Amino acid sequence: MTGWQTHASRTVYENPWIRVREDEVTRPDGSDGIYGVVELQHPAAFVVPVTHAGEVVLIRMYRYTLGRESLEVPAGGTDGEDLLTAAMRELREETGYAAADWEQLGLMHANDGVAHAPAYVFLARGLSLADEAHEMAEEGISEVLTVPWPRVLELITSGELHDSESIAALAYAAIALGRMT
Length: 181
Fold this sequence. Notes:
Helix content is 22%, strand content 48%. It has 4 helices and 11 strands; from the N terminus they run βββββββαβββαβαα.
């Protein structure tokens, strides 16, 4: 029993990537109100690419919502395609790398107080440079860099790597690779 009751729901905005809806609700305390929810139209795929040397491939990109650059793992919407296919596409588009070995690590939900935004995390190993990353300019990616795990932790601690979904994806990968001890 959740304590929440939904009486009506209406879409207030929609595009190919997101839908925003308002629900008329009764809260657990019995009061009535409106609850706004942002829904991704399709799940996202987050990729933690790890080189043969054990370094993590990260991207630096401009985030319009923040008005500044952000250091992140490659990621993007699945656009309705298979999760692994989307993860492979995002890795190639954003970094120029392909991976020989893929492992799905888990599912995470971002901003679950206001959003329904499922994201699947993949570990990509056996990297090779496939081609020029062809969506870098379109997405505002200014740099692709390889970072040793200890430096990744420093970047998180210092706040330079602040994207919560990237941090969660890196935690999934660190657990899978035995780097959380």
